[in-house]
Design a protein that fits this description.
Length: 117
């Protein structure tokens, strides 16, 4: 089972790569993190951590990312989240910008975890 610190590190690495390349998560797992391909819930290190460490198997109140439109990556409202927009964007330049914004979202406990590292 992945530790929270490792999940956060891998999350940041993935979104850094996505912001740099403009590619999709599938490409990340095919090209970079192939050892994790098909092993993570929703192809997300933080989702996988939450699902592995809670009884309700829900990211809704437990996602450590402070999303722009609510408590999880998908808004399920008329206002799409950054992730919703990124996931349907076809223009590589716009995908990079959206991924960069996602990368900059606050992660709960991030500074506490890395204090002194």
């Amino acid at each position: 089972m992945m530790k929270y610190k490792d999940a956060v590190i891998n999350h940041v690495k993935m979104w850094e790569w996505l912001a740099k390349t403009g590619k999709d998560k599938v490409d990340y797992f095919n090209e970079v993190a192939f050892e994790d391909k098909g092993l993570l819930k929703n192809d997300c290190y933080l989702c996988d951590f939450v699902f592995s460490n809670t009884l309700d198997f829900s990211c809704f109140h437990k996602c450590p990312v402070v999303w722009d439109t609510g408590k999880m990556c998908m808004s399920f409202t008329a206002t799409p989240s950054l992730f919703d927009r990124w996931s349907v964007e076809n223009d590589i330049s716009d995908r990079k910008k959206l991924a960069s914004k996602i990368l900059k979202l606050k992660i709960k406990g991030y500074y506490k975890i890395f204090k002194g590292d």
